[in-house]
Design goal:
Radius of gyration: 18 Å
Strand content: 25-35%
Low-confidence stretches: none
Mean pLDDT: 91
Distance between the termini: 28 Å
Number of domains: 2
Structural class: alpha+beta
Length: 107
């Protein structure tokens, strides 16, 4: 799954920044602060923290962030969540908010 590779990329970038790796563009040194990379890493950390600390309830309606499919939480297990939409789905509990969000009025 690409998600694991993206997480590895983020960790590698953070490691490079922490190690003091310098950026060179067209023969000129650049500071990490001259790029949007630091802001993007902060935003990723913020969203990941929100996703990991959000809770879900049985019968709560959710919507898939990519496909727009609406599902309902049917059961919450220790590590997975059972969803019902056009079919039954078992989803990792710690990753649910990466791909689903709560339905808000107007969706």
């Amino acid at each position: 799954m690409l998600e694991n590779e993206y997480e590895q990329l983020v960790e590698h970038l953070k490691g490079m920044i922490a190690d003091g790796v310098q950026l060179v563009h067209d023969g000129h040194l650049m500071d990490w602060h001259d790029t949007n990379i630091l802001n993007l890493l902060q935003e990723i950390d913020r969203k990941k923290s929100e996703a990991e600390n959000s809770s879900v309830e049985i019968a709560e309606p959710l919507i898939n962030r990519i496909s727009g499919e609406r599902v309902y939480v049917t059961y919450i297990f220790e590590k997975t969540i059972a969803l019902m939409g056009s079919g039954a789905i078992s989803y990792p509990k710690d990753k649910i908010w990466y791909h689903y969000r709560k339905i808000i009025p107007g969706d």
